[in-house]
Amino acid sequence: MALPRMPAPIRLRELIRTIRTARTQAEEREMIQKECAAIRSSFREEDNTYRCRNVAKLLYMHMLGYPAHFGQLECLKLIASQKFTDKRIGYLGAMLLLDERQDVHLLMTNCIKNDLNHSTQYVQGLALCTLGCMGSSEMCRDLAGEVEKLLKTSNSYLRKKAALCAVHVIRKVPELMEMFLPATKNLLSEKNHGVLHTSVVLLTEMCERSPDMLAHFRKNEKLVPQLVRILKNLIMSGYSPEHDVSGISDPFLQVRILRLLRILGKGDDDSSEAMNDILAQVATNTETSKNVGNAILYETVLTIMDIKSESGLRVLAINILGRFLLNNDKNIRYVALTSLLKTVQTDHNAVQRHRSTIVDCLKDLDVSIKRRAMELSFALVNGNNIRGMMKELLYFLDSCDPEFKADCASGVFLAAEKYAPSKRWHIDTIMRVLTTAGSYVRDDSVPNLIQLITNSVEMHAYTVQRLYKALLDDISQQPLVQVASWCIGEYGDLLVSGQCEEEEPIQVTEDEVLDVLEGLLVSNLSTPVTRGYALTAIMKLSTRFTSVNRIKKVVSIYGSSIDVELQQRAVEYNALFKKYDHMRPALLERMPIMEKTASNGPTEIVQTNGEAEPSVVEAKHPPPVTQPTNQANDLLDLLGGNDVVPVIQTTVPTKPASAGGELLDLLGDLSLSGIPPMTAYNKNGLKIDFTFERANPNPNIAVITIHASNSTEADMTDFVFQAAVPKTFQLQLLSPSSNVVPTLNQGTVTQVIRVLNPQKQQLRMRIKLTYTHKGSAVQDLAEVNNFPPQSWQ
Amino acid sequence: LLFSRQGKLRLQKWFTPLTDREKKKVIRDMMMLVLARPPRSCNFLQWRDLKIVYKRYASLYFCAGLEDKDNELLALEVLHRYVELLDKYFGNVCELDIIFNFEKAYFILDEFLMGGEILETSKLAVGVSMEEADTLQETMEEYMSKPAY
């Protein structure tokens, strides 16, 4: 029984027309689904007649964004068909629906191979095109031989396609490059521009990928003279309607040749010399009224700058770029700025001459141009032009779109750091940035700025005053607020005392300052980070201001804050007021001048909770706020020596100190402050020496290092040293360097003890030692009374 | 990429292998970036590590992605040349021509570019190839009667 024949599938045009009448997305989807179903059944029927039409429709629907993978195999069938129409659509489908990652392409290889040898050049062309666009490495490997054969044919249509196909093969399988070398010999003697162009592309690809090839072409093939000749002919030849674009003969070929010359001339004196003339000729004779001429000039300039050209030529090139900058055409200006950016490193002075034009481009309306101009302006800033340039750049920062502000601000900071003519100028510039673009400033600028301010000692009063005034105006810009609160915390005393040399000192009372800081704490505009800064600043003022009670109140309120960070700080500060009040002045002292660390990484920021175990903050989140806390927890901070304590200034390595043992090494390097070492214990072969150091900011702290050595013939393992001091003292024991005291004095175990002795009483200590020696556990107690007077006076 | 002002894709030619999802994302991004540009702006913009060159012809945007070392000004000429080729083939081409004959637009493109590089710099040559290839395409009767394999 014969099945009823399905109606012939609708034609492509019909389908397109129908789909376009759909008024909603849903309607369109419905139509498409219906048609897809029809197509699918048609495919199932293995209908040769309509396969082509169906695949074409499928491709259309694919372009609209609908899935079409079920047509992939059908494309293969079309490719294998004898009909040209089928093949054309089949190959198109392969290029659109398949890519080299599918397995289907393996099946294609055979078809392509056959078609590469087809009698009709257009079929061969289709095969080459498809291979050249989406061929996988396996396909390329299999078919490279065929491509190579076609590269040698005299048929220019095929030759040019084979050349570009070879380019693709080389890109996919670079090892096959060698294979195409012999065929390239005669490529450039062709007259056909298509072949010439594609050959130049092929040669470019080979030279770019392989230095050997490059050398080969330079020397053996004498490529440069050939190219020069061709280029010359192009320029000199009369009008050729076929290749003409606005009066210029085959600009595409000219540009490609210039690009290949660039590669050949780079780093090679001989080649560069051989092309000097032609480059000069192109540069001076090319018509610049249309885009096409400028395209050629652009490529010429790039080539001149890259090769070893003589200086006259380079000047010519930069002048061309300078002219580009003044061109009305935006594209040309953009391209000029981009090229100048590339050359500014090597030909800095020449580019400087165009500085004013570049700066004018900052005011251009076009976004792309503005960005390039900004980048270039920063590259041009130097010690001489810093003041002028900065004025322009700050003006730009004021008026530019938000997308630029962050980069511009960072650029300004960098430039200011490098070339600031005076500290005051520097601070002023920073202030300007913070107030105009404060919310766009990058997070890591805040610690950098703080460090900068700390180091400009004579400007402290001026800085804090200006920051205070800025705060009064506007508290919405977080980086500004953070820097300002930090400064007020540090230098609040200078603020209220009204000493300022640089400008008119303002009269402000302690209460007003505290009002401002408290205002930050409660404001909705402040982020948690900012609040942290504010709270710490208030705390610091407790040693600089007299109204301590008010501060105490504020701090205790936040002891129950919802924000965990804030709460923790408040609790710690409360503790400072209560239990550790004697430590408070020491902790909240002025920050000393900080060493500039190479990176703003976690090394200088150590979050501690007063515990014995220090923890290093992750590199990803170096919260700048912990810097002030660092100072506050200085004593409690076992690693306080890391950057802040000046005692260790010169030897601070920027590595995170981990166990106390490392710290001991640091301390060990220090010259002793003249307190003689002493032997605390010497029994049964175990000798313990004490060496002393004073932590400078606070003379009440003695830092003692014990050195345990073992003169017996067996190691002392599980060595534990413990110490106790009278109640008026405070003791801290850091981790020992190890708990094995090696035999026969081969090494020592060291451990650091920090003793706080605010009442300057005579230091006494009771020590307990436990260790295992020759298999048995040993324990001993001892009193140490022979501390030298200097250690506690 | 060719797309209309309403964000409808009319042609897409990829010269590097990307997944379907990646392609869709690129298309979306390009449309967003290009359609948002004010009328008299520069034809170039930077997107990730590519230089994007675009030009508007009537209702269609022609958009190309270039590598760093490619010449942008020349790319404008390439786009223009393609439009000229379409124009010559279709005779005063308009968007509808490209919609209804998209496969022809692809064929023309494939005679002009391959693997992202220019294949033929002569307008004449491309025109001739297309004509000849078209004659090879079977007429309806031929097609129906000719065996496939």
From TrEMBL, chain A:
PROSITE patterns: GAE (PS50180). Keywords: Cytoplasmic vesicle, Golgi apparatus, Membrane, Protein transport, Transport. The keyword Thylakoid does not apply. Residues 673-788 form the GAE domain. Transmembrane segments: none annotated. The keyword Nucleus does not apply. It is a peripheral membrane protein. GO terms for cellular component: AP-1 adaptor complex. InterPro entries: Adaptor_Complx_Large_Subunit, AP1_complex_gsu, ARM-like, ARM-type_fold, Clathrin/coatomer_adapt-like_N, Clathrin_a/b/g-adaptin_app_Ig, Clathrin_app_Ig-like_sf, GAE_dom. It is found in: Cytoplasmic vesicle membrane; Endomembrane system; Golgi apparatus. This is AP-1 complex subunit gamma. It comes from Pundamilia nyererei. The lineage of its organism: Eukaryota, Metazoa, Chordata, Craniata, Vertebrata.
Automatic annotation (TrEMBL), chain B:
This is AP complex subunit sigma. One of its GO terms (biological process) is intracellular protein transport. Residues 1-135 form the AP complex mu/sigma subunit domain. Belongs to the adaptor complexes small subunit family. PANTHER family: ADAPTOR COMPLEXES SMALL SUBUNIT FAMILY. PROSITE patterns: CLAT_ADAPTOR_S. Keywords: Coated pit, Cytoplasmic vesicle, Golgi apparatus, Membrane, Protein transport, Transport. InterPro entries: AP1_sigma, AP_complex_ssu, AP_mu_sigma_su, Clathrin_sm-chain_CS, Longin-like_dom_sf. One of its GO terms (molecular function) is clathrin adaptor activity. Adaptor protein complex 1 (AP-1) is a heterotetramer composed of two large adaptins (gamma-type subunit AP1G1 and beta-type subunit AP1B1), a medium adaptin (mu-type subunit AP1M1 or AP1M2) and a small adaptin (sigma-type subunit AP1S1 or AP1S2 or AP1S3). It is found in: Cytoplasmic vesicle membrane; Golgi apparatus; Membrane, Clathrin-coated pit. One of its GO terms (cellular component) is clathrin-coated pit. It comes from Pundamilia nyererei. It comes from the Eukaryota.
